């Protein structure tokens, strides 16, 4: 689609949203942001950054800003399943609220167990009423894995003994869009790790409707809000990868965007935590970084008010946005190189394979990333120290 046609299409979509009645009597999002000290300039800078994240041209920034301002026009139901509430906490509990978290504070959250005052039968009634009142209109966001089937009793909610699985099924049935927030909801998370005694599964396993996965432990607040903005703009689901993750957020590996990538390419690696390489900010692959195997945009978004992220702080990526990461990415401080790969060089660990091939083969696909990492040791830097 041509850029001009897309601009026209999104403009019409937002105009239709603008005609919708506000769902409550709260102040508008622009007025709330102003009260919180967010200038129009800062808001537009934020909208520009979100526009870039969504892979839209810069001249679409006013549309993204408008979508954010209209985000209180669509009802949202947020369910908690088997989880730690970390995804909600990362978005809402900050000492210096970002524009992302402020917007999420004032969208029309019809049900959110962490935030609402209601409890007991009143909370159950609120959920049932919201599902019925906004049938076919609401966005469903689910946080946490779901004990399912014969194990569904491990998560029982409310006085009527209704299971979390049944709540998720009922809420999914009439949702306009469904987002799995966090790795637990997207893929099962730590609850589904071996031996998975509670039979926990991903949200997508209990509904036959399309689920947009927004994994991470926790996911970036920008990936949560950005997914919502995309739906507001388009009214349709975004382009998804093979694991139903939005490509605009999960299209590149941590490795592709890593600030330590130059050290990786130069063969400069941390051999153990606290060594000279660690002090110089060398690549963390040798101490377990799973960045070459993990798709996310953490280095762009960062955490703690966008201050830092694990690799910047000195610890490798643990692959938390990948399916079954708890089982497949561990031990977290050991390289994946210990696993065997079937390659043209035989069944070798990734690092062992790399030691046998030259720099000229580093672009080979498949094992190329793991191979590249291990090529560092033409000469062990510790030998220099000796």
From TrEMBL:
Gene3D superfamilies, sorted: Cytochrome-c3 hydrogenase, C-terminal domain, NADH:ubiquinone oxidoreductase-like, 20kDa subunit
Keyword flag Transferase: no
Gene: hydA
Name this protein carries in UniProt: Ni/Fe hydrogenase
Cofactor: [4Fe-4S] cluster; [3Fe-4S] cluster
Residues the record lists as binding [4Fe-4S] cluster 1: 84, 87, 184, 217
Residue sites binding [4Fe-4S] cluster 2 per the record: 255, 258, 283, 289
Native organism: Malaciobacter marinus
EC number of this enzyme: 1.12.5.1
Domain NADH:ubiquinone oxidoreductase-like 20kDa subunit intervals: 84-230
Molecular function terms from GO: 3 iron, 4 sulfur cluster binding; 4 iron, 4 sulfur cluster binding; electron transfer activity; ferredoxin hydrogenase activity; hydrogen:quinone oxidoreductase activity; metal ion binding
Residues in Cytochrome-c3 hydrogenase C-terminal domain copies: 250-332
PROSITE patterns: TAT (PS51318)
Family according to the record: Belongs to the [NiFe]/[NiFeSe] hydrogenase small subunit family.
Residues reported in the UniProt entry to bind [3Fe-4S] cluster: 298, 317, 320
Keywords: 3Fe-4S, 4Fe-4S, Iron, Iron-sulfur, Metal-binding, Molybdenum, Oxidoreductase, Signal
Location(s), subcellular: Cell envelope
InterPro entries found in the cross-reference section: Cytochrome-c3_hydrogenase_C, NADH_UbQ_OxRdtase-like_20kDa, NiFe-Hase_small_C_sf, NiFe_Hase_small_N_sf, NiFe_hydrogenase_ssu, TAT_signal, TAT_signal_bac_arc
Taxonomic lineage of the native organism: Bacteria, Pseudomonadati, Campylobacterota, Epsilonproteobacteria, Campylobacterales
Assembly information from the UniProt record: Heterodimer of a large and a small subunit.
GO BP annotations listed: anaerobic respiration
Annotated Gene Ontology cellular component terms: [Ni-Fe] hydrogenase complex; cell envelope; ferredoxin hydrogenase complex; membrane
């Amino acid at each position: 689609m041509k850029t001009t046609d897309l601009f026209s299409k999104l403009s019409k979509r937002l105009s239709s949203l603008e005609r919708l009645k506000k769902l409550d009597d709260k102040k508008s999002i622009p007025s709330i942001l102003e009260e919180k000290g967010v200038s129009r300039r800062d808001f537009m800078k934020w909208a520009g950054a979100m526009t870039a994240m969504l892979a839209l041209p810069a001249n679409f920034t006013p549309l993204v800003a408008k979508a954010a301002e209209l985000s209180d026009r669509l009802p949202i139901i947020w369910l908690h399943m088997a989880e730690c509430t970390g995804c909600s906490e990362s978005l809402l509990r900050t000492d210096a609220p970002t524009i992302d978290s402020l917007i999420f504070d004032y969208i029309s959250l019809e049900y959110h167990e962490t935030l609402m005052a209601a409890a007991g039968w009143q909370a159950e009634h609120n959920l049932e009423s919201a599902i019925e009142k906004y049938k076919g209109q609401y966005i469903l966001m689910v946080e946490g894995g779901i004990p399912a089937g014969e194990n569904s009793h491990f998560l029982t909610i409310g006085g009527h003994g209704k299971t979390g699985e049944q709540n998720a099924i009922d809420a999914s049935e009439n949702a306009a869009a469904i987002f799995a927030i966090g790795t637990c909801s997207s893929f099962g998370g730590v609850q589904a790790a071996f031996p998975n005694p509670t039979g926990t599964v991903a949200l997508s396993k209990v509904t036959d409707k399309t689920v947009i996965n927004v994994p991470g432990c926790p996911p970036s607040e920008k990936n949560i809000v950005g997914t919502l903005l995309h739906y507001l703009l388009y009214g349709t689901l975004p382009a998804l990868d093979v694991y139903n993750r939005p490509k605009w957020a999960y299209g590149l590996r941590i490795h592709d965007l890593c600030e330590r990538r130059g050290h990786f390419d130069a063969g400069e690696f941390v051999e153990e935590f606290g060594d000279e390489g660690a002090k110089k900010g060398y690549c963390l692959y040798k101490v377990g970084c799973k960045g070459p195997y993990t798709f996310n945009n953490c280095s762009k978004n960062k955490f703690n008010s966008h201050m830092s992220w694990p690799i910047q702080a000195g610890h490798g990526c643990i692959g938390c946005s990948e399916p079954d990461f708890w089982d497949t990415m561990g031990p977290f401080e050991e390289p994946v190189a210990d696993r065997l790969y079937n390659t043209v060089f035989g069944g070798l660990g990734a690092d062992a394979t790399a030691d046998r091939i030259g720099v000229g083969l580093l672009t080979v696909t498949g094992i190329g990333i793991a191979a590249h990492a291990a090529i560092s040791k033409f000469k062990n830097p510790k030998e220099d120290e000796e």
